[in-house]
# Entry
Amino acid sequence: LEVIVSDFDRTDRHTEAAEQKAHEEFVEFDRVSRADISGKETKIELDREDLEATTNKIAQSLEDLETAQKLIDSALRRLGDLKPTCIDIGMSYADRVAKREEEMAALKRALCILDT
# Structure
């Protein structure tokens, strides 16, 4: 009977020690898990805010791009309208040189008249 009682006491002590250890491990695991979950929830919230900020920045950049593209298109149309005026004046190179020489001669005559 003493052997049974001592075996029972030993088993009871081992069981209580194992339960105590398991409880301590659970408490530690629960604390770590809650902290981890809390950290991850905070990270999710920060990531959502970052996503919203990035989405807004992309939308603003697209608006800016659209505005810039409209300005470029407008400038290209204006350039296209002005190009014929600048390039095709209807005169050959020789005609332009002759006209320039005529203008210079006329200016020299005017200068001579003004000097006298």
About this structure: The helical segments are 2-87, 93-115.
